[in-house]
Design goal:
It is a single chain. The protein has no helices and three strands. It has strands at 19-24, 29-33, 58-64. A three-stranded antiparallel beta sheet has the order 2-1-3, with no helix packed on it. The termini are far apart.
Length: 71
């Protein structure tokens, strides 16, 4: 996160079997498997999980337990 308008939305531990749900103020939802997120070292710029439109902000982030296929 960089810039004056960058804020932390959530912080929580995750397991590789879980997923993360991100929600924006424009109603965009994205569900990401944790094991699909690349590990980045300290000297990197980070990892982009969601691209938002101009003026759009992520307003919620939640950890989802692995419930399996079709459940």
């Amino acid at each position: 996160l960089t810039g004056e308008d960058a804020f932390m939305v959530a912080c929580f531990p995750v397991d590789e079997s879980q997923e993360i749900l991100l929600v924006t103020d424009a109603g965009q939802l994205i569900r990401l498997p944790v094991d699909g997120i690349r590990i980045a070292g300290r000297a990197t710029q980070g990892v982009t999980l969601i691209r938002t439109g101009e003026g759009e902000r992520v307003v919620a982030a939640e950890r989802l337990e692995d419930v399996g296929e079709g459940e």
